[in-house]
């Protein structure tokens, strides 16, 4: 025999508001056991209390309603735990990004780091294997991570000789229009095509180069300093920004040890002038 309680009492048992319970009914997440045909009043079996409490905890962890529904519908504990684990992993990643952003903000509000060091380079034509795509600015980091892993894996599998650091080319439209072309490349002795990986020869280029030290969360400050440096000397020219990844998260777990070269395209005369 089931024990039915009205929505108000069920709300008290589960610490879910009446408004929330009605919403969960409307979206099919937690349906009442019965609804009075004349009054529309909802009644719940007390056996639903554990389910409601699980929903409350998952929503408290910002799990989307669609994912909560998948957890409740999981055919076994293994699949249920995998769904919850995936969400927790996403939360941990977001937490790391938040911590990095907070740390960078503290640095920004602290004493000025002073003038940056800039080196001018005439970079020769470079043979690479590369992955190119149109990427939204908010998706750059995960897209970059996947492309970098794919390039490095291909180099290991084929035994091709790597001749330089992993790098990236970033179309200015990525920042001006929030969507732009991004290329992740790996210099190699003998380029090859494999799936979305393509042989790509980077043209020779004149660049103003500085090194960003630390987390990617603060890389915009180094961009700003280098861009202002080049602009003050009227040396800039159109073209993608180039990055070289001297130390990446694959090389160290300490964000303070990350090292990224940022290269701004400049006129060929800039190197002689400096």
Computed CA radius of gyration, to the nearest angstrom: 27 Å
Outline type? elongated
Distance between the termini: 88 Å
Largest sheet: 8 strands, antiparallel
Protein structure class? alpha+beta
**SSE string, helices as H and strands as E:** EHHEEHHHEEHEHEEEHEEH
Task: From the structure above, extract its key features.
single chain, alpha+beta, 9 helices, GyrI-like, three-stranded antiparallel beta sheet, MerR family transcriptional regulator, eight-stranded antiparallel beta sheet
Please explain how this structure is put together.
There is one protein chain. The protein is of the alpha+beta class and 274 residues long. It is 41% helix and 24% strand. The strands form two sheets. An eight-stranded antiparallel β-sheet has the order 4-9-11-10-6-7-5-8. It is elongated.
Layout of strands and helices, then pairs:
Layout: E1 4-6, H1 7-14, H2 18-26, E2 34-35, E3 42-45, H3 49-60, H4 65-73, H5 77-109, E4 119-123, E5 126-136, H6 140-158, E6 167-170, H7 173-176, E7 179-187, E8 198-202, E9 205-213, H8 219-232, E10 241-247, E11 259-265, H9 269-273
